[in-house]
Structure of Iron complex outermembrane receptor protein:
Amino acid sequence: MLLIPALGVALSSYAQTGAISGVVRTSDNEIASDLTIVLNDSLRTKANSAGEYGFRNLKPGIYALSTTHIGLQTKRDTIHLHDAEKRRFDLLLSVDKHMLQEVVVEGQASLVETITSPTLRVQTPLIELPQSVQIVNADLMARQQIFNMADGLMRNVSGVSRLSHWNDMYVNLNMRGSKIQAFRNGMNAVSSFWSPLSEDMSVVERVEIVKGPAGFMMSSGDPAGIYNVVTKKPTGVERGEVTFSMGSFSSYRSTVDLDGKLSKDKRLLYRLNIAGDTKGSFRPFEENKRLVIAPVLSYQLDNKTKATLEYTYQRAQMTDVGSGYVFSPVGYKALPRETTFSSPGLEPIKVNDQNIFLTLERNLNEQWKLTAQGAYFSYDQIGANSWPKDVLANGDVVRQTGIWDATSTMALGQVFVNGNLQTGAVKHRILGGLDFGRKDYYADWSQSFVLDSLNGGEFNPRDPQYGLDFPYTPFNRSTPLKIRAAAGGGIIQTHYSSAYLQDELGFFDNQLRLTLAARYTAMSQASWGGDPIESKKITPRVGLSYSIDRNTSAYALYDQSFIPQNGVLYTGEAVKPLTGDIMELGLKRAWFNNRLSTTVSAYQILKNNEVTAYGPRPNENIEIGQKRVRGIEVDIMGRIAPGFDVVANYAFTDAEITKVNAEVEGFYAGQRLSGADRHIANVWLDYHLQAGALSGLSFRAGMTTNVDRTTAFYSDDHPEWNLPDYLRFDAGLGYHKDNFTVIFNVQNLADSYLLAGGSYYDDYFSTPVYSWQAELPRNFRLTFGYKF
């Protein structure tokens, strides 16, 4: 009986609170998005892509509203709010030629992002979203000198690790027990296991890591999560930046970033990023070169419609991929860190990667927005890869190189609508959309030749004599690649379409939010020359989020995934689509006026039919049955004191096989999964002096550790077969004065022999062997930057 009056009191208290909301525009009637609005110097929010902002649960009184944003004049207003009043207050801002910034006093931008990019579809503030989404922005990447997606961005997000790699060709990030899908500007950019080409950070504004299924992305993604790379767009502010970097092993890099307008009426804007990068290696004969050119144009057709056209070109050349792998029957680290099985004169890998995006945004009215986006990806690769023909019991190796030519195209399209409406006391955030895609990948692995002769001519990695026992013969490319790929079964084709509808219902002045959604997916997939397999499925999504107070929320989530998988089983059969579901609970809090954010989450994922590698070759896979992944994750990011930033995270992951298909041998229920380190922890500290003669100087330190690793292989019975634990320390200095910046970082301070990945093969070669990839020894990077 006490529950009824208590509920009445609660409902009465909700009814007495007010709200302030509106739309922010510039003086030329353009939408001002991603702009910070401050209320009474204590509450902060950001305008979404439609320029909308809002504060709720406000008591009657006088409120001071202020806005600050780069390139716009600071604006301050006073609002008198009456009891339970819902005040509409639109803002009109003028352009500021002095480019005021909210963070100019401290000289550092905030690490905390409070809303997602428009490419993530949902416009719910992160604190209210019933899912863990972590964002790494461009400022943090610059401080840590993350030049490439493969450079260590994962240290900023709990539970993310890099399983293994073929040089810097692709990233291969794992999280929550699986390889996570790569998205670019909200579109799935994966055409094969080895794609996409790792992104150069010169064109990247932020990377958004979505943990768990992301049905709202419409494009299919793994139940473990996705990462979404958001590229730089024009801002309309005339500015630029140039950087020059150098580092260990003859590494050099230059970047140019230009941003501005091409018309006096500011309707035609541009952004241009150019980067050149070359680096050697601690291993002999190894190098990596890259050129990036990325122009972007945006045009404001009218005050409600904007079109954006962007093109990115990456040209990469790297040593024959696989050169980083080392093999020994003795054990991990049995050979010197700089050991390579490569040799001078082998054919490198050359890649030309291009993509073009066309986006049309239309504000239908103040509450509804329509977005249509199309993209075309083109990838061409020519070169070779290395993998031993055999490893002998004494450790000698018969090396082998093979052709790896590939071409890939992807044509992708999306259209979605975001809107807000009110039905009685219930607020609705609506998201609906359609998604289409066609992906084609062709590869030729049909030619190879050994580098070493038998019976005494084998390569001895303990006393390496580099060279070839046979004359090098170029691969025969007289036949067109697609014909060669068809003859060898090296074709992967995926066609899909999906529809998504979501309603986020807000109760009690949006303090309690219920998300109901469903996605319909239809796909056709053919792998390695097999017949297409067609699949259709409806997957639901249910989320619940409750705001305990203005800065704290708790959430629960149930979601499902349904995605195609590339590959073929070792039996020759085609693989089935992966299905999975997730249950998750979490707690989020914003501290110190959104300068610090914390997220704690616990989850369970069940996955069916996931393909697991059964060897190093692309056609050697098995479907074990069912896998279960459970874990706890903690993410902390932001400013804990003036000038003192911290990124800290921890993940505990328990991943095991729960069901084994009848035809599968060598696996059992309860066996731990590969690709899921039990413990991963990261800490990164940055202290920036605020005053005095040394103002602008910053000190940085970081630590990364992976314990009880299960990267590409794990054995319960033979712990010596598993990779050793990983512990790395980094440190650095920075200096910021006016428009000039210097950044100096040292990685692997202790000069430890660290392994990026590895595996144990008990039946692949003549003798059981350990395979591993060594990370860089102690190394440094020095960057000079100038903004104008």
